[in-house]
C-alpha cells in the first residue's frame, strides 16, 4: 500500500521507487491493481514526460492482460499525438509492442495504424527504431494495414546507408551508421513481396551499397565494428534471398558469403554456411554457390564446432546436382565414419536421397547404399533399405549386379543386420542370376545366408525364412537341404509364434505343392507402384513441419537434374500404368509388402484429362502475374504469387514429356480460408496438346497453414498458351478470387543434348529452311552479365555448349523437345552486343511453331 501511495507523489524519486516496487513485486491478481491502474492513468494524462515514461515502463514490465484491457486503447493515442515528446513516443511504441505480444486480441486496429506508419519519417531515430519494431510485429499479422510502410522503410534505409558515419553521430556505432535501425528496416521489408518498380530500384541501390561497403577495408579493428557491419550485411542478404528477383544481387551475395567461409570467426562461418544453404535454392545463384564446394568440403573435415559441420552438410546437400553428386556423396560417406552421433541419422538420409535422385548409373547407387549400411548400419532406417530393394525390383538392368554385390558383401565376417535384410531379400528374388558362377552356386548362397541366421533378430529371421522358401522355387536341387532346416526343432518348436508359423507353413508348402503351384505362389515380385518418397518424408519430419517459406529454403532441382516423371493417377483415375525404367523412383512407397499384385496395365495414357467440359472465360489475371510467369521460364521453383492474404509457391520437375508440379497454398493470415477451391482453366487448343491431372485439396486452410496440390503433366504436342490457375475462397466473410498463369511452358520438356562443334554446325546447316529458323534482335532489358546469361540458358533447358562458336562471346545451346507424338531437335545461338546493349537470338528446329515459341520465351529473359 505504501508503494501505491508513492505513485501519487510529485517527486520523481518517490514515484520511481513506487513504480519499481510494483513492477517487480505486485501480482497481476492483487487487490491493489485497480488503485495502481488509476495512478497510471493519472500519470499518462499529466503530460509530464518523465511521469508518462515511468507509467509506460511499468505497464510494459507488468504486461498482464489486465494492463492490456486498461491501457491498450490509450497508448496508441499517446503514440500518434502531435505534441508527445520523442522519449515518450519511444516508450509508448515499445509498451504497445509488449501488450500486443502478450494480448494481441486486446489491441484494436484503428485510425492510428495509418498514422503510426508515418513515424518512420520521424526526425528522431530513436522513435523510428521503436516504431519499426512495432510495425514489423503488427505487419506480420495485419499486412494490408501496414503495406504503405514499404516505401517509407526503403526511403529511410536509403538515407541511412548513403550517409557518412558523421551524419548520424548519436546513432553511429563504431563507424556503422544506425546498425540496429538498418537491421529492423530490412526485417520489416521481408514481411512483403518485392515492391513496385520505382521503389524496387531505390531498394536495389541500397542493397548494392551495403554489399559494396562490405568489401571496403574495416574502419576499426574492434570486434564491435565488424559485428555491426556484418549484422546489416546478413540481414540485407536475407532480404535479397526473400525477394529472389535480382540475379545480380543474388550472385554478389553468394560471392560475399564465400569470403566468410574461411573467416577466423566461427560465428561468421556458421552464418555464411546457413545463408548459402538458402542461396543454393535459387536458380540464379545455384551455380555461384557450387564454386565453393572445395571450401565447404574442407570445412566438413577441419571444423572443430559440430554445429558448423552440420551446416556444411546441409550446404553440400543443397548445392548437389547431377554434375557433382558423386563427389558430394563420397565426401559425406567419408565424413560419416567420424561424424558426431547426433547428426549421423540425418546424414544417412541425405546420402540415400542424393544417391537415388542423381543416380545415372544405378550400380553406383547400389554400391553407395551398401557402403552406407557398412559404415553406419545402426543409423540406416527401414525406409532406406526398403528403397534400395524397391529400386532394384523396378530396374531390370541392375538386378544381376545387385545380387552379385550383396553376395560379396555378405561374405565379410561381420555384417550389419540391415545388410543381411537387403541380401536376403535380393538373393531370394534374383539369386538365380548369379547361380551360374560356381563361386555363388545355390548351395553356397543358402549356406552364406544361413550362417547369419542365428545372429539376427526375429524380424530378420522371418525374412530369411521367406528367402529360403523362395530358394525352393528358384533352386529345386537344394530343396531337401532347406526342408531339413525348416524341419529342425529350432524352427518347428521355436518360442516365437511368427517364426514357428512360417516354418510350419513353408515346410508344408514345399512338401505338398506341385512345381507349377510353387512357381505361381513364389513368383518374382512385380514392380512397386509410385508413391511419395518415404525417405524424403522422414527427412522433412526430422527437420520440422513445412511452411510456405520452406519452399524457398528447400532444394530447387533443375529440369536437367531429375530422374523421373509424373506421379501416378489417383485410385479413381481411369488409367494406371506400371512404372517404366525411366520413372521417377523418388515416388516409390514406404516398404516392400509381403504380397503384392501387379498393378493393372492399360494401353492408355499415363495421365487422364481432367477437363470434361470446355473452360469458361479466363478470369482477369492478378497484378504482377505476367511478370512472375516470365521469371519461371528459366526456373522451376519459387514463389509464383503473393499478396497480403495468400502465398502460392511452386516446386516442379520434368522428365521427357512428363512433369509433376507441387503447388503450395499458404494462408498468411490468422483467419481460416473457407471453401478454398483451386481450379485449372485451359482453352480447347491447350487441352488437345497438354494433359493435366490434379489432386483435390482441403477446402479449409487454417490461419498460418499451408496445403499442397499435385499437378501431373503430359505434353502431347507443342503448345503456345499456358493454363490459368484460379483460386476462390472466403476470408472473413469476403469472397476472394485470384487468377495466375501457371508456368507450364514448352521449354520445360527440353532435354539437354551435348554436341561437339563439328556436329553442331553440321546439324545447323541441315536446319537451313526458312520455316525452320526464327531470329529476333532485341534490346537488353537486364545487365548483360555472361554468368547470368549462362545460368538462364541452362535453366531454359538446353545444354550450354562450350567452345563451339568461333566467337567466344556467343552462347550456343542444343536440346530435344519431348512430346508424346514427336521429338523435336532444337539448336540456339545467342549473340550479345555489349556496345549496343542488344542481343540477336536465333532458333532452328524441325518445326516452325516450336522455333517461334522458344524464341518468344527466351527473348523475354534478357
UniProtKB/TrEMBL annotation:
Source organism, top-level taxon: Eukaryota
Main location class: membrane
Membrane-related topology note: Peripheral membrane protein
Subcellular location: Cell membrane; Membrane, Coated pit
GO biological-process terms attached to the record: clathrin-dependent endocytosis; intracellular protein transport; synaptic vesicle endocytosis
Known function: Component of the adaptor protein complex 2 (AP-2). Adaptor protein complexes function in protein transport via transport vesicles in different membrane traffic pathways. Adaptor protein complexes are vesicle coat components and appear to be involved in cargo selection and vesicle formation. AP-2 is involved in clathrin-dependent endocytosis in which cargo proteins are incorporated into vesicles surrounded by clathrin (clathrin-coated vesicles, CCVs) which are destined for fusion with the early endosome.
Subunit structure and binding partners: Adaptor protein complex 2 (AP-2) is a heterotetramer composed of two large adaptins (alpha-type subunit AP2A1 or AP2A2 and beta-type subunit AP2B1), a medium adaptin (mu-type subunit AP2M1) and a small adaptin (sigma-type subunit AP2S1).
Protein name (Swiss-Prot/TrEMBL): AP-2 complex subunit alpha
Alphabetical keyword list: Cell membrane, Coated pit, Endocytosis, Membrane, Protein transport, Transport
One Pfam family here: Alpha_adaptinC2
GO molecular function, one term: clathrin adaptor activity
Keyword Ribonucleoprotein: no
Keyword Repeat included in the entry's annotation: no
Family note: Belongs to the adaptor complexes large subunit family.
Region Disordered, residue ranges: 536-603
InterPro entries for the chain: Adaptor_Complx_Large_Subunit, AP2_complex_asu, ARM-like, ARM-type_fold, Clathrin/coatomer_adapt-like_N, Clathrin_a-adaptin_app_sub_C, Clathrin_a/b/g-adaptin_app_Ig, Clathrin_app_Ig-like_sf
Domain Clathrin adaptor alpha/beta/gamma-adaptin appendage Ig-like subdomain: 630-743
Gene Ontology CC entries for this record: AP-2 adaptor complex; presynapse
Composition-biased stretches (Polar residues): 572-581
Amino acid at each position: 500500500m505504501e508503494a501505491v501511495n508513492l505513485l501519487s507523489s510529485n517527486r520523481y524519486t518517490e514515484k520511481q521507487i513506487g513504480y519499481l516496487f510494483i513492477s517487480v513485486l505486485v501480482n497481476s491478481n492483487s487487490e491493489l491493481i485497480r488503485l495502481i491502474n488509476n495512478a497510471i492513468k493519472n500519470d499518462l494524462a499529466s503530460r509530464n514526460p518523465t511521469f508518462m515514461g515511468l507509467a509506460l515502463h511499468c505497464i510494459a514490465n507488468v504486461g498482464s492482460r489486465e494492463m492490456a484491457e486498461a491501457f491498450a486503447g490509450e497508448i496508441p493515442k499517446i503514440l500518434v499525438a502531435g505534441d508527445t515528446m520523442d522519449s515518450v513516443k519511444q516508450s509508448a511504441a515499445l509498451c504497445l509492442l509488449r501488450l500486443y505480444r502478450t494480448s494481441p486480441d486486446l489491441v484494436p486496429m484503428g485510425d492510428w495504424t495509418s498514422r503510426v506508419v508515418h513515424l518512420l519519417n520521424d526526425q528522431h531515430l530513436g522513435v523510428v527504431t521503436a516504431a519499426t519494431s512495432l510495425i514489423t510485429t503488427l505487419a506480420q499479422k495485419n499486412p494490408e494495414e501496414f503495406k504503405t510502410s514499404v516505401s517509407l522503410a526503403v526511403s529511410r534505409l536509403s538515407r541511412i546507408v548513403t550517409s557518412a558515419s558523421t551524419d548520424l553521430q548519436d546513432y553511429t556505432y563504431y563507424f556503422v551508421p544506425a546498425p540496429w535501425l538498418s537491421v529492423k528496416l530490412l526485417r520489416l521489408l521481408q514481411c512483403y513481396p518485392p515492391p513496385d518498380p520505382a521503389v524496387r530500384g531505390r531498394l536495389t541501390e541500397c542493397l548494392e551499397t551495403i554489399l559494396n561497403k562490405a568489401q571496403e577495408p574495416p574502419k576499426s579493428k574492434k570486434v564491435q565494428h565488424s559485428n555491426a557491419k556484418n549484422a546489416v550485411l546478413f540481414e540485407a542478404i536475407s532480404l535479397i534471398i526473400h525477394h529472389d528477383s535480382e540475379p545480380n544481387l543474388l550472385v554478389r551475395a553468394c560471392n560475399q558469403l564465400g569470403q566468410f567461409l574461411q573467416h577466423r570467426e566461427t560465428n561468421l562461418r556458421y552464418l555464411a554456411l546457413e545463408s548459402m544453404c538458402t542461396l543454393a535454392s535459387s536458380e540464379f545463384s545455384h551455380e555461384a554457390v557450387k564454386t565453393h564446394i572445395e571450401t565447404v568440403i574442407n570445412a566438413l573435415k577441419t571444423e572443430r564446432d559440430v554445429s558448423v559441420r552440420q551446416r556444411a552438410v546441409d550446404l553440400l546437400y543443397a548445392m548437389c546436382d547431377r554434375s557433382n553428386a558423386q563427389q558430394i556423396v563420397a565426401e559425406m560417406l567419408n565424413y560419416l565414419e567420424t561424424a558426431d552421433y547426433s547428426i549421423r541419422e540425418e546424414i544417412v538420409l541425405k546420402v540415400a536421397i542424393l544417391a537415388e535422385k542423381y543416380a545415372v548409373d544405378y550400380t553406383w547407387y547400389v554400391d553407395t547404399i551398401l557402403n552406407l549400411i557398412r559404415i553406419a548400419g545402426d543409423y540406416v532406417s527401414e525406409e532406406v533399405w526398403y528403397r534400395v530393394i524397391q529400386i532394384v525390383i523396378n530396374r531390370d538392368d541392375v538386378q544381376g549386379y545387385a545380387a552379385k554385390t550383396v553376395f560379396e558383401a555378405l561374405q565379410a565376417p561381420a555384417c550389419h543386420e540391415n545388410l543381411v535384410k537387403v541380401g536376403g531379400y535380393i538373393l531370394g528374388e534374383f539369386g538365380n542370376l548369379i547361380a551360374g558362377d560356381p563361386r555363388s552356386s545355390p548351395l553356397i548362397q543358402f549356406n552364406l545366408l544361413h550362417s547369419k541366421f542365428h545372429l539376427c533378430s526375429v524380424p530378420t529371421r522371418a525374412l530369411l525364412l521367406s528367402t529360403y522358401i523362395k530358394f525352393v522355387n528358384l533352386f529345386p536341387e537344394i530343396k531337401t537341404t532347406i526342408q531339413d532346416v525348416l524341419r529342425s526343432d529350432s524352427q518347428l518348436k521355436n518360442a516365437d509364434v511368427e517364426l514357428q508359423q512360417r516354418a510350419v507353413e513353408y515346410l508344408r508348402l514345399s512338401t505338398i505343392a506341385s512345381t507349377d503351384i510353387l512357381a505361381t505362389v513364389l513368383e518374382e515380385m512385380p514392380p512397386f507402384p509410385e508413391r511419395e518418397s518415404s525417405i524424403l518424408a522422414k527427412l522433412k519430419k526430422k527437420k520440422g513441419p513445412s511452411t510456405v517459406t520452406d519452399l524457398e529454403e528447400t532444394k530447387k532441382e533443375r529440369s536437367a537434374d531429375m530422374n523421373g516423371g509424373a506421379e501416378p493417377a489417383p485410385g479413381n483415375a481411369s488409367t494406371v500404368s506400371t512404372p517404366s525404367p525411366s520413372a521417377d523412383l523418388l515416388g516409390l512407397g514406404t516398404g516392400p509388402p509381403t504380397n503384392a499384385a501387379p498393378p493393372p496395365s492399360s494401353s492408355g495414357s499415363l495421365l487422364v484429362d481432367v477437363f470434361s467440359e470446355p473452360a469458361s472465360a479466363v478470369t482477369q489475371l492478378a497484378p504482377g502475374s505476367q511478370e512472375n510467369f516470365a521469371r519461371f521460364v528459366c526456373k522451376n521453383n519459387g514463389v509464383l504469387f503473393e499478396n497480403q492474404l495468400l502465398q502460392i509457391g511452386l516446386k516442379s520437375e520434368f522428365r521427357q514429356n512428363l512433369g509433376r508440379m507441387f503447388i503450395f497454398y499458404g494462408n498468411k493470415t490468422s483467419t481460416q480460408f473457407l471453401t478454398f477451391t483451386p481450379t485449372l482453366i485451359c482453352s480447347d487448343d491447350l487441352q488437345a496438346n497438354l494433359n493435366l491431372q490434379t489432386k483435390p485439396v482441403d477446402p479449409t486452410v487454417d490461419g498460418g497453414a499451408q496445403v499442397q496440390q499435385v499437378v501431373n503433366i503430359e505434353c502431347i504436342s507443342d503448345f503456345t498458351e499456358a493454363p490459368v490457375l484460379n483460386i476462390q475462397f472466403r476470408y472473413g466473410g469476403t469472397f476472394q478470387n485470384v487468377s495466375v498463369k501457371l508456368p507450364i511452358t514448352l521449354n520445360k520438356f527440353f532435354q539437354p543434348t551435348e554436341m561437339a562443334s563439328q556436329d553442331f554446325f553440321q546439324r545447323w546447316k541441315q536446319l537451313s529452311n526458312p520455316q525452320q529458323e526464327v531470329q529476333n534482335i532485341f534490346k537488353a532489358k537486364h545487365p548483360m552479365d555472361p554468368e547470368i546469361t549462362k545460368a538462364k540458358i541452362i535453366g531454359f533447358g538446353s545444354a550450354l555448349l562450350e567452345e563451339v562458336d568461333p566467337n567466344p562471346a556467343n552462347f550456343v545451346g542444343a536440346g530435344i523437345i519431348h512430346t508424346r507424338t514427336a521429338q523435336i531437335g532444337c539448336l540456339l545461338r545467342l549473340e550479345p552486343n555489349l556496345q549496343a546493349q542488344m542481343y540477336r537470338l536465333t532458333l532452328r528446329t524441325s518445326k516452325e511453331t516450336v522455333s517461334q515459341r522458344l524464341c518468344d520465351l527466351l527473348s523475354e529473359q534478357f
